[in-house]
Amino acid sequence: MVSPKLIESTIAQSLDAVRPFMSDPDVTEIMVNSDGSVWVEARGEITDTHALLAEHDREIALRAVAAMVNQDLTEGTDQSVVSMSIGGLRFAGALKGVDPIGTVLSVRKHPEPGRRKTLEQLVAGGMLTQQQADTLIDLIINKEMNAIFIGKTSSGKTTLLNAVLGKLPAHVRIGLIEDAKELEIPVPNKNCFLTNPEKGLTARVLVQLAMRMRYDRLVIGESRGTETYDLVRAFSSGHNGSISTIHGSSAKRGLQALEMLYQMSIPQGGGVSIEAARSYIAEAIHLLVYAERRYEPNGEGGFRSIRQVKEIVLVKGVKDGEYEIEPI
Length: 328
Known about the structure:
alpha/beta, Beta-Lactamase, eight-stranded mixed β-sheet, globular
């Protein structure tokens, strides 16, 4: 087996052309397109760095990232795609062929635990109001409502979730399940599980494990597939105050996406009517929090990315076959 230190050294060497951006604390995302052009997001603004990362280096970096989980990349197959975390970096990319021009790569930098924004800092930065922050603390932390955080990629939903988790009381026992290390749980009594689907260690397997391990709350980094059926079961079985995230463009559409994933993840041979599925979901999910990402002019001829909480919605139940929701 290749030494992890050797793999990390290979990644660092192949990404030498973007080293200044990797070490810049203001840069949160590095995006390398199929033509080798390097774009970065820093302080909410996306800019072309005019740097180039050669195809050879992109391929070596991606193969080295995959090697960290013993994944052997194969062009033209589903094994040509990578998504995983190494330390505080989340890598996502695909070999040439997925995009015929060249290998693509994106690196998201997660702040060190001490640099992650608190809820107070997010309020000061305008992501949400003090009233919204107080509402989230009251409903999720104090009243232990199960919540789904909804938003597009890089909408700030994980940042917001991290900040809310920062308000957890120290005595709570937490089970965390992620496909890449992104969340920081500030309580001592916890387990942080990472999936490895290539080896059969799926989120579904870990959710089922967590249901047997006496956690007060479960935190599922993202609901995206086969684990959704078990997630709804877990949220309904006494793990009050549990949280997950899902991609969506509004609170209502996030709920619809969750329903679709639930139906898709029902075990083979099973079947649940739409009405029954909605009833189960409404019993399990009490709160929807939608974070929006949009672009606004920065006054200098460019644009900056704005992340803001747009909706906090209570799920009251199901009435006449439709979800009964109430914006706060």
